[in-house]
């Protein structure tokens, strides 16, 4: 069953079209109505045209209003149809002098029994749209300065042999492997993103690629000529005929980035790709007759 309630906050009208079952019908939730909601997010109130910060009939002051709902996706849109002349929403203005906008949060079906929550307000100018959390997530990722794999093997100065297993592995750090965490904020919303490499594709330069889900295992002399248990390659021809007598390869990492809105319940995932080049010199075992 839907219930409606209105409240005025500094000249701002809170339109609560539905409330969670825990909210009281008499509005015992505080001035902002947030106490009865599962999550509150801040929404910027448009500045008062002509200067000034206090609320009044000529526009809203600079401030914030708490709005409402878990998993909400908020935006600012023109209210259609516009209220008739004389409506309190016009705050003393006439239709055509600016417009009435509403900042709405549309909850997911079945979430907390909340269907629509919003703030209706008059503004002379078109308000700035609400911040997209995915945009903040991208900003957080940019601040991480993620890099391509830190290739430890093969080494540029190394000499490798046809038919002998080559172990592939990378060094790990927050910028080359993860986990790497960063946050970005705007419009009262904070998004925290965490990035970690999920796979590395090794292009070995001889037409073969190797996909590894981990960083690979470092080789030790005790391993002898055994193949790598998780990430390796075996060259079948020398690099003598290649440019510079080396195979030109690359290691490409795929970063999986999970992000979440702080206190808001919204989540998402991004994918980033980074690449590092490497060279491999491969020769043959020389057999000398006696």
Structural write-up:
The chain has 290 residues and is mainly β. The chain folds into 2 domains: 5-123, no CATH class; 133-283, no CATH class. It has one helix at 133-144; strands at 5-9, 12-16, 41-45, 63-67, 73-78, 99-106, 116-123, 150-153, 160-161, 166-167, 169-171, 180-186, 189-203, 209-212, 232-233, 247-261, 267-280, 282-283. The strands form 6 sheets. A 5-stranded antiparallel beta sheet has the order 1-2-7-6-5, with no helix packed on it. Strands 12, 13, 14, 16 and 17 form a 5-stranded antiparallel beta sheet that branches. Strands 3-4 form a two-stranded antiparallel ribbon. The longest helix has 12 residues, at 133-144. It is rod-shaped. The N and C termini lie far apart (97 Å). The model is unreliable at 1-73 and 105-117 (pLDDT under 50).
Record the SSE blueprint.
Blueprint: E1 5-9, E2 12-16, E3 41-45, E4 63-67, E5 73-78, E6 99-106, E7 116-123, H1 133-144, E8 150-153, E9 160-161, E10 166-167, E11 169-171, E12 180-186, E13 189-203, E14 209-212, E15 232-233, E16 247-261, E17 267-280, E18 282-283
Question: What is the structure about, briefly put?
Answer:
Helices cover 4% and strands 39% of the residues. With 290 residues, the protein is mostly beta strands.
Determine the fraction of residues in helical runs and give it as a percent range.
under 10%
Task: Kindly report how far apart the N and C termini lie.
Answer: 97 Å
Q: Report the sheet-strand fraction.
A: 35-45%
What's the total count of β strands?
A: 18
| Series of secondary-structure elements, N-terminal to C-terminal | EEEEEEEHEEEEEEEEEEE
Helix vs. strand class: mainly beta
Strand order of the largest sheet: 1-2-7-6-5
Number of domains: 2
Unreliable residue runs: 1-73, 105-117
- What would you report as the Rg, rounded to the nearest angstrom? 30 Å
The overall average pLDDT, rounded, is 73
Overall morphology: rod-shaped
């Amino acid at each position: 069953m839907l219930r409606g309630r209105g409240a005025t906050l500094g000249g701002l009208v809170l339109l609560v079209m539905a409330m969670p079952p825990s909210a009281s019908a008499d509005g015992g939730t505080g001035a902002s109505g947030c106490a009865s909601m599962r999550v509150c997010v801040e929404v910027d109130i448009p500045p008062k045209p002509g200067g000034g910060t206090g609320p009044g009939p000529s526009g809203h002051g600079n401030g914030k209003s708490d709005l409402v709902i878990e998993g909400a996706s908020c935006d600012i849109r023109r209210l259609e149809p516009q209220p008739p002349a004389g409506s309190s929403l016009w705050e003393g203005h006439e239709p055509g002098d600016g417009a009435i906008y509403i900042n709405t949060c549309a909850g997911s079906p079945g979430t907390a029994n909340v269907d629509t929550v919003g703030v209706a307000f008059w503004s002379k100018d078109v308000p700035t749209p609400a911040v997209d959390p995915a945009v903040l997530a991208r900003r957080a990722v940019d601040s991480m300065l993620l890099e391509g794999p830190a290739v430890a093997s093969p080494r540029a100065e190394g000499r490798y042999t046809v038919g002998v297993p080559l172990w592939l592995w990378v060094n790990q750090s927050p910028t080359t492997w993860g986990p790497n965490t960063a946050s970005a904020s705007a419009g009262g919303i904070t998004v925290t993103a965490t990035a970690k490499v999920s796979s590395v594709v090794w292009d070995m330069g001889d037409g073969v690629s190797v996909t590894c889900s981990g960083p690979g295992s470092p080789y030790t002399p005790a391993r002898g000529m055994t193949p790598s248990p998780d990430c390796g390659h075996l060259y079948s021809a020398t690099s003598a005929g290649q440019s510079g007598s080396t195979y030109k390869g690359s290691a490409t990492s795929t970063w999986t980035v999970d992000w979440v809105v702080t206190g808001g319940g919204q989540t998402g995932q991004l994918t980033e790709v980074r690449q590092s080049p490497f060279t491999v010199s491969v020769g043959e075992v020389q057999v000398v007759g006696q």
